[in-house]
Amino acid sequence: MVAGVLGVLSAALYAFLEAQRAFDEEPLLPSEMAPPPQRWLKVLVLIALIGGIGLVSVGATMYDASPTCAYTSPIVHTWTFATLLLYAAFGMLVLGVPVLGFVFPLIAVALVPLIATLVTMVAWMREAGKRGAHSATSVLTRWLRTSNDDSAQQPPPTTIANPASTFGLYVNTAALAWLFGFMIIEARSAATLPCDAPLGTYVLGVGAIGMAMCLFDFVLEVFKDPMPPLTKLEQAKQKDDLRRRLVAYGWVAFVLVVWGALGCVWVGGAKSCAATSPSIYRLALLLSFVYLVVLAVACFAAIGIAVDFCLSGRLRFIVVFEQ
Known about the structure:
- By secondary structure, this protein is an all-alpha fold.
- The protein has helices spanning 2-25, 39-64, 69-72, 74-110, 115-131, 136-145, 148-152, 163-189, 199-222, 232-269, 273-276, 278-311.
- It is built from 12 helices and no strands.
């Protein structure tokens, strides 16, 4: 209950910060700096962070000290585990960015055979940190230190994102990591339960692919260069990177389509899994439903594109009236 109340209040605070950021930055010129946040907003952000840390600490202690709740109150026990998993995913993302920025240079120094590639990676990480890496600790520290005296001097605007927008990146990734991590844990815990279809493998595959995709996209989004390509060489490199990324996403989409089709066949052929392994069966049924909905939306979009192609002048119909 406390986790739900804190989550609702934090979501409302995030929505207010995002709306205030958009309101403050709308009338500004590119050379102007947004006004500093008010002190009471800083206090609320710190209270939310301290409350989240305290909630995870107390909740983990209570969860570890209550092994019988899994039998006497299974729903509350499962939701407690899901809550702790969500907060742990968010905390790992917050701590992972500065750790990666510190560990990668050490790896570059230690591994001599790969020194050329790793030096390029270090330079990329260093430039990303200077020009706008979305580290939650650095953004929050800079945001809390901003005062009216600093804004009166009107320094050039930094490229580090507003903590509200950066917070959204961390929350979205933490939610996806929580979802896919929960699938992996459920699939591993139910691996010994009898089932006449490989639904555990299906759920485990979806969880592993989803976890890899969301973490990879998070790292790219955090350490990307916010500056647009200026030279022709940079523009050509960006086009090549985009082309390779589209090819990779195409292969991933193909694997997901094939894997989802296999999962639908397995769910349709399962007879005893609903009784012997209900958690995996419900997850597999949910994934199959989501797969069918996404496939239906994709088909609808393809039909719309085809209709637009036929009616936008690319395809002409000539009707001749004769007596």
